[in-house]
Amino acid sequence: MKIKTISPNNKHFESVCFHLTLWIHQEFDYFLYLQLKWDLIDQYQLAKTRHKKKRSRNHFPKIIIATHKGDLIGFCRLVAEVLPEQKKIGPWLSQMYILETQRSKGYGTKIIEYVGLVAKKLKYKTLYLRTEDQEKFYQKLDWQFFEKHSENDTEFTVLKKNL
Protein backbone atom coordinates (compact mmCIF):
# COMPACT_ATOMS: atom_id res chain seq x y z
CA MET A 1 0.00 0.00 0.00
CA LYS A 2 1.17 3.51 -0.83
CA ILE A 3 -0.10 6.68 0.81
CA LYS A 4 0.59 10.13 -0.58
CA THR A 5 -0.69 13.66 -0.91
CA ILE A 6 -2.01 14.46 -4.37
CA SER A 7 -2.91 17.49 -6.45
CA PRO A 8 -5.78 17.79 -8.97
CA ASN A 9 -3.52 16.66 -11.81
CA ASN A 10 -2.92 13.24 -10.21
CA LYS A 11 -4.44 10.27 -12.08
CA HIS A 12 -6.54 9.32 -9.01
CA PHE A 13 -8.11 12.77 -8.57
CA GLU A 14 -11.12 11.94 -10.79
CA SER A 15 -11.76 8.75 -8.82
CA VAL A 16 -11.59 10.63 -5.51
CA CYS A 17 -14.17 13.13 -6.83
CA PHE A 18 -16.41 10.31 -8.05
CA HIS A 19 -16.37 8.41 -4.73
CA LEU A 20 -16.70 11.59 -2.70
CA THR A 21 -19.77 12.60 -4.73
CA LEU A 22 -21.38 9.20 -4.18
CA TRP A 23 -20.58 9.26 -0.48
CA ILE A 24 -21.82 12.79 0.18
CA HIS A 25 -24.96 12.67 -1.98
CA GLN A 26 -25.76 8.92 -1.71
CA GLU A 27 -26.04 8.83 -5.51
CA PHE A 28 -24.03 9.81 -8.53
CA ASP A 29 -25.13 12.94 -10.31
CA TYR A 30 -22.80 14.29 -12.99
CA PHE A 31 -23.51 17.93 -12.16
CA LEU A 32 -22.86 17.41 -8.45
CA TYR A 33 -19.67 15.56 -9.41
CA LEU A 34 -18.49 18.47 -11.58
CA GLN A 35 -19.35 21.00 -8.89
CA LEU A 36 -17.40 19.03 -6.28
CA LYS A 37 -14.47 18.52 -8.65
CA TRP A 38 -14.22 22.21 -9.49
CA ASP A 39 -14.64 23.20 -5.84
CA LEU A 40 -11.71 20.95 -4.91
CA ILE A 41 -9.60 22.34 -7.75
CA ASP A 42 -10.46 25.94 -6.75
CA GLN A 43 -9.63 25.24 -3.10
CA TYR A 44 -6.34 23.66 -4.12
CA GLN A 45 -5.37 26.57 -6.41
CA LEU A 46 -6.35 29.18 -3.79
CA ALA A 47 -4.28 27.42 -1.12
CA LYS A 48 -1.33 27.11 -3.49
CA THR A 49 -1.50 30.84 -4.29
CA ARG A 50 -1.78 31.80 -0.61
CA HIS A 51 1.11 29.51 0.26
CA LYS A 52 3.36 31.09 -2.36
CA LYS A 53 2.43 34.67 -1.41
CA LYS A 54 2.58 34.35 2.37
CA ARG A 55 5.02 31.49 2.77
CA SER A 56 2.63 30.26 5.42
CA ARG A 57 2.34 26.72 6.74
CA ASN A 58 -1.39 26.62 5.93
CA HIS A 59 -1.15 25.03 2.53
CA PHE A 60 -4.63 23.51 2.80
CA PRO A 61 -6.58 21.64 1.71
CA LYS A 62 -4.57 18.50 1.11
CA ILE A 63 -5.98 15.36 -0.48
CA ILE A 64 -4.38 12.17 0.82
CA ILE A 65 -4.91 8.89 -1.02
CA ALA A 66 -4.05 5.26 -0.39
CA THR A 67 -3.45 2.93 -3.32
CA HIS A 68 -2.75 -0.78 -3.57
CA LYS A 69 -1.22 -2.16 -6.77
CA GLY A 70 -2.08 1.15 -8.45
CA ASP A 71 -5.78 1.09 -7.49
CA LEU A 72 -7.39 3.67 -5.21
CA ILE A 73 -8.51 2.12 -1.92
CA GLY A 74 -9.23 5.18 0.20
CA PHE A 75 -8.71 8.86 0.78
CA CYS A 76 -9.26 11.77 3.12
CA ARG A 77 -8.64 15.48 3.22
CA LEU A 78 -6.63 17.64 5.59
CA VAL A 79 -8.37 21.00 5.80
CA ALA A 80 -8.02 24.24 7.75
CA GLU A 81 -11.58 24.27 9.06
CA VAL A 82 -14.73 22.16 9.19
CA LEU A 83 -16.95 24.11 11.56
CA PRO A 84 -17.38 27.82 10.78
CA GLU A 85 -17.80 28.61 14.49
CA GLN A 86 -14.50 26.84 15.29
CA LYS A 87 -12.08 28.75 13.06
CA LYS A 88 -9.43 28.94 15.77
CA ILE A 89 -8.86 25.20 15.97
CA GLY A 90 -7.40 22.94 13.33
CA PRO A 91 -6.28 21.42 11.12
CA TRP A 92 -9.01 18.86 10.53
CA LEU A 93 -8.99 15.35 9.17
CA SER A 94 -12.00 15.47 6.87
CA GLN A 95 -14.00 13.22 4.56
CA MET A 96 -12.21 9.99 5.45
CA TYR A 97 -13.40 7.27 3.07
CA ILE A 98 -12.31 3.69 2.42
CA LEU A 99 -13.94 1.87 -0.49
CA GLU A 100 -16.38 -0.72 0.89
CA THR A 101 -14.47 -3.65 -0.61
CA GLN A 102 -11.31 -2.49 1.21
CA ARG A 103 -12.67 -1.94 4.72
CA SER A 104 -11.47 -3.80 7.83
CA LYS A 105 -8.00 -4.29 6.37
CA GLY A 106 -6.22 -1.55 8.34
CA TYR A 107 -6.05 0.94 5.49
CA GLY A 108 -8.02 3.61 7.34
CA THR A 109 -5.65 3.42 10.29
CA LYS A 110 -2.64 3.82 7.99
CA ILE A 111 -4.17 6.87 6.26
CA ILE A 112 -4.97 8.49 9.62
CA GLU A 113 -1.39 7.90 10.81
CA TYR A 114 -0.08 9.48 7.62
CA VAL A 115 -2.33 12.53 8.04
CA GLY A 116 -0.98 12.93 11.58
CA LEU A 117 2.58 12.91 10.21
CA VAL A 118 1.68 15.53 7.58
CA ALA A 119 0.09 17.80 10.22
CA LYS A 120 3.06 17.31 12.55
CA LYS A 121 5.48 18.15 9.74
CA LEU A 122 3.53 21.40 9.30
CA LYS A 123 4.25 22.07 13.01
CA TYR A 124 0.73 21.45 14.34
CA LYS A 125 0.34 19.86 17.75
CA THR A 126 -3.32 18.80 17.54
CA LEU A 127 -5.52 17.35 14.83
CA TYR A 128 -9.35 17.44 14.88
CA LEU A 129 -12.18 15.56 13.19
CA ARG A 130 -15.94 15.29 13.30
CA THR A 131 -17.80 12.01 13.15
CA GLU A 132 -21.44 11.02 13.27
CA ASP A 133 -20.97 7.31 13.87
CA GLN A 134 -17.30 6.27 14.07
CA GLU A 135 -16.34 7.65 17.47
CA LYS A 136 -15.31 4.22 18.85
CA PHE A 137 -13.08 3.52 15.84
CA TYR A 138 -11.18 6.77 16.31
CA GLN A 139 -10.96 6.37 20.09
CA LYS A 140 -9.15 3.05 19.52
CA LEU A 141 -6.56 5.15 17.66
CA ASP A 142 -6.07 7.49 20.67
CA TRP A 143 -8.44 10.26 19.58
CA GLN A 144 -10.14 12.00 22.52
CA PHE A 145 -13.54 13.56 22.94
CA PHE A 146 -13.52 17.34 22.37
CA GLU A 147 -17.20 18.33 22.16
CA LYS A 148 -20.66 17.41 20.86
CA HIS A 149 -22.38 19.36 18.08
CA SER A 150 -25.65 19.47 16.22
CA GLU A 151 -26.13 20.84 12.72
CA ASN A 152 -29.27 20.57 10.58
CA ASP A 153 -30.75 17.93 12.90
CA THR A 154 -27.56 15.85 12.69
CA GLU A 155 -25.68 15.04 15.88
CA PHE A 156 -21.92 14.56 15.67
CA THR A 157 -18.88 14.42 17.89
CA VAL A 158 -15.69 16.42 17.53
CA LEU A 159 -12.57 14.48 18.48
CA LYS A 160 -8.98 15.61 18.79
CA LYS A 161 -5.62 13.91 18.74
CA ASN A 162 -2.41 15.26 20.17
CA LEU A 163 0.42 14.80 17.71
From TrEMBL:
Entry-linked SUPFAM superfamilies: Acyl-CoA N-acyltransferases (Nat)
Short name of any one Pfam family annotated for the protein: Acetyltransf_7
Domain N-acetyltransferase: 20-163
Species, as recorded: Lentisphaera profundi
InterPro entries: Acyl_CoA_acyltransferase, GNAT_dom, NAA80
Descriptive protein name: GNAT family N-acetyltransferase
